[in-house]
Amino acid sequence: ADGRTRITLIVAGAASAFLAAGVPLWQQARATRAWADAVAAARSARAAMRIALEDALDPFAALLRQLAAAKGHEWAQLRGEAIQLALTSLAQLTALGEPGDDDRPRRVRVCFFALEPGTPRRLVPQSYAGRAGAPTVVFDETTRAGQFLLRVADSGWIIVDDTGTQRTPVWWDEDRAHRTFAAGPVPGNGAPAGVITLDALEPGELSDLDLPLV
């Protein structure tokens, strides 16, 4: 080739060589920037969560110090305050959602059911925090729902993604508004002290990532 054809081929070869070397470098630079952005976002989210945890747990820690030194009637009163503060802190933290969620807070509710020993054993709603709607149902061993929650009290945590597909429907209020929930035992002195539940309005709105916080 000679003349214009030669020049055209030389320019085309140079452009091809530039693209062959430049595109991978551009992709690598783009991936590096994306990685840096992801790391910065993760650090920011972790810092925000640490601040939220400190704000939520600082008054709780102070209350526990008072509880450790209290006796009699004062101990019972502080115990009730500690339970309510724990539920409120948990509701506030889980309402923040997970990394990647939109800015809309989740309308979650946290309930504590105290375990009353006897025949039959009963789980009685004692406190709640978060979304409006107090739990009203008392569970015992004579119902399938009561058997379900008492197994949770004895065995460990469980999460239900969608109550619509649950074999044993478990509701703790008349509205039956929650569509997903997690439940687990509250340890006591040699026996469970009760069950704590965390519920939300939409199926799948809670996940396994919420359990470590609880």
Describe it.
There is one protein chain. The chain has helices at 3-69, 72-94, 144-155; strands at residues 109-116, 122-130, 139-140, 158-160, 180-186, 194-200. The longest helix has 67 residues, at 3-69. The model has no long low-confidence stretch (mean pLDDT 84). The chain is elongated and about 100 Å long. The protein has a six-stranded antiparallel β-sheet. It has 214 residues and is an alpha+beta fold. The N and C termini lie far apart (75 Å).
User: How many helical stretches?
Assistant: 3
Taken from the alpha-carbon principal axes, the silhouette is elongated
How do the helices and strands follow one another from N- to C-terminus? Answer: HHEEEHEEE
N/C terminus separation: 75 Å
Low-confidence stretches: none
The radius of gyration computed from the alpha-carbon positions, rounded to a whole number of angstroms, is 28 Å
Query: What is the helix content?
Result: 40-55%
Structural class: alpha+beta
What attributes does this structure have?
214 residues; 6-stranded antiparallel β-sheet; elongated
Q: Care to give the gist of this entry?
A:
It contains three helices and six strands.
Q: How are the SSEs ordered, and which strands pair?
A:
Layout: H1 3-69, H2 72-94, E1 109-116, E2 122-130, E3 139-140, H3 144-155, E4 158-160, E5 180-186, E6 194-200
Antiparallel strand pairs: 1-2, 1-6, 2-3, 4-5, 5-6
